[in-house]
Write a structure and sequence with these properties.
83% helix, homotetramer, 4 helices, Substrate Binding Domain Of Dnak, Chain:A, Domain 2, 110 residues
Chain lengths: 110, 110, 110, 110
């Protein structure tokens, strides 16, 4: 595994874990309704990151296409999470999404 | 593909779709908080059904073990969904979970 | 679930099962080396179809983007499988891939 | 995320990447037929590790059951990979599987 791919996989895996944790934590909040869009995007983001990681690890010829879509969904999820400024799980997830988006874009440029 | 496996795959795929739809519909409800456990179980149930379907379709030697776990999670999800008697998406999901649980147990006995 | 979505999900699920079965059957062939690219594409195709089905079933705002990528990978996998004219599992998989590609493109146009 | 869970997620993610890489590398070998069982187990192992990681990250009540099954499949995959003593990708995968099996069993005992 090239060092760059490992760094990309690390960012993808950190984003999966952050999104899964964020969705579960959102469901425990008092005002779950306010978190509904966050939960929806967490689901999409964890799923696309998981698939992208698999394609990258296996050296798929289709990995590049997924990186582009993955970056888009990470951005959407990170933007939504960033709005919930007083929730630590959302702030951590927003940061993981931003790093993953950047790693995907770096992978695209490689 | 044997007819029995196709019937099992159909039940698993119907359960995945019902759980995904139910989770999204729950997030649109006025009282999302009441649906939090339902959404959590929908996630687990769709995920285990999806993996089980893959193992069954590929004829994996480990498919039997997953059928057992899949039946357990379908039961838990179906029981929770069944409680929400006035929500159609939950009732439909409860029915899909029950059928999938039965199909998994039939697959185990085969 | 709208009838059109159900038809799309059916095509996606049939393609997942065909790809999984094809990959396993390819691994049982005498000349596995000749099937190596087929097996690789089966993996990618089953994976992208599975994710696309989840996004469609949950009504994700990102489903459209995945449909486009899914159609591309279905085409690549179907073209490869179609080359192996004397293997039934490949011919069945090629047909499932073609139908799924068409269903994805129909979903994109909807 | 507790430190123990992070360590478990790291082992699961390393095992996914090793299995995906091993399967792709096996498909490039001259004697693919000899690697057929290894490729099959790599698929199962990467899939169960991926699902287990999702359940652990979301704090699912069903994570424990998956840890048990995941450990079993990691053992089967690691044992098969260990047989191919002159292939680096198999030796690396065998090591990742062994570490992941141990991490799953440690998670079960926790």
């Amino acid at each position: 595994m090239h060092a760059q791919n490992q760094s990309l996989l690390d960012a993808l895996n950190a984003c999966i874990a952050a999104c899964e944790h964020c969705a579960s934590a959102c469901l425990q909040e008092d005002d779950v309704k306010m978190m509904a869009r966050c939960i929806s995007l967490d689901r999409d983001c964890a799923d696309i990151c998981a698939l992208t990681a698999r394609f990258v690890a296996r050296g798929s010829e289709h990995a590049q296409h997924l990186l582009s879509e993955c970056a888009e969904i990470c951005k959407a999820c990170g933007d939504e999470c960033a709005k919930h400024t007083h929730m630590q799980h959302c702030q951590e997830c927003a940061e993981a999404c931003r790093r993953c988006e950047q790693a995907c874009r770096a992978g695209l440029a490689a």
